[in-house]
Amino acid sequence: MTLAPADGGRRSRRGFLYQDAVTLLDCLDMLDGRWTEVSWEDLEDILCLRGDTPAYRQVKTVEGSSKSHSIADVCRADQSRKPENRTAASSYLGKLFLDKPLPDGSRFTLIVNEPPAADLYQFVCHREDRPQPVTGVNRDKIVEKLASLQLPDGRDAAWCVDRLDVLVAPRTVDEVENEAFWRLYPLVRDYLGQDPMVPEVDNVLKQLVSVHIGRSAAGRTPRRHTADDFRQVLEDCIRKNTGQRSDGSTERLMTLTQKLQPTGVTEAEAERQHESLLEFRQARRRSVGLGRQRFDKLSDKVFAICQVTSARRRGGLIGAGSPAYMATVQAILAMPEVESGEVEISDALAVLSDITARCQNRYDDVS
Question: How far, in Å, CA of 346 to CA of 332, rounded?
Answer without folding.
Answer: 11
